[in-house]
Amino acid sequence: MLSIKNWDNKTWISSTKYIRSFNIFLLKQKKLSKHSKILDIGCGRGKIMGSLSSKLKLINKPIGLDIENHKDFDKRIIFKKTNAIKYLRNNQKKFDLILIKQTIHFFNLRDIKKILSYSYASLEVGGVILILTLDTKNNEIPTSVSYTHLTLPTICSV
Ligand SMILES: C[S@@+](CC[C@H](N)C(=O)[O-])C[C@H]1O[C@@H](n2cnc3c(N)ncnc32)[C@H](O)[C@@H]1O
Question: Three-class SS of residue 87?
C-alpha cells in the first residue's frame, strides 16, 4: 500500500487556520459535546482531532488509527498504529462520530464495504460516519471535498 508519511507534516493541512476551519465545518455536520466519542480512521498525526478535543474539552480522548507509525502524533488523541479493518473487526467500543477523511480511496471496494459495515456496527445510536473525499474533477490539489453522511438509524448521502 502507498505510504503517506508527510501529508500533514508541517503542510497547510496541519496549519491552525485550516484545522480550525475544518472543525467548524465538522461541527455543522454533527453536533458534538464534551461527552462525544470519536474515531478518526487514517488520522495521520491526529492534529485535527487533537484540536477538536481541546475545543470541546472532550472527556474521552479521540482514537486515531493509522498504518504509519507517527511517533510525533498529537498527544491529545489515542493513536493506534494499525490497519483500520483489523481494528474495526475486533472493536467493541461505540462512537458518536467516525471520521474517514481523505482516506477511503486507499481501500479497494471489498475493503470499503468492510469498513462501512464495521463502522456502522461501531456507532452509538445517533452516531454518524462522515466520509470526506477529494473532488478531483475540478481540483488539482486537495482543496475541496465531497462527503457522505451515514447515520443511525437512517442512511443518507449528501
Ligand atoms: C491522505 S492521509 C489523510 C490524513 C488525515 N485524515 C487528514 O485528512 O489530514 C490518509 C491517511 O490514511 C492512512 N491509511 C491508509 N491506509 C490505511 C489503513 N488501512 N488503515 C489505517 N490508516 C490508513 C495513511 O497512512 C494516511 O496517513
Answer: helix
Q: Is 43 in the pocket of ligand 1 (CB under 6 A)?
A: yes
Q: In the predicted model, is pLDDT for residue 110 greater than 90?
A: yes
Contact, 91 vs 124, CB < 8 A?
Answer: no
Give residue for cell 493541512.
Answer: 13
Among 15-19, 77-81, 116-120, the minimum mean pLDDT is found in 15-19
Cα–Cα distance, 65 to 87 (Å, whole number): 8
Task: Assess whether the C-beta atom of 23 lies below 6 angstroms from ligand 1.
Answer: no
Site to substitute for ligand 1 among 72, 86, 106, most atoms within 8 A of C-beta: 106
Residue 46 CB less than 6 A away from ligand 1: no
> Which CATH fold topology does 12-156 show?
Rossmann fold (3.40.50)
Domain boundaries, the chain: 12-156
Q: State which amino acid sits at residue 124.
A: E
Q: What does the pLDDT average to over 57-83?
A: 96
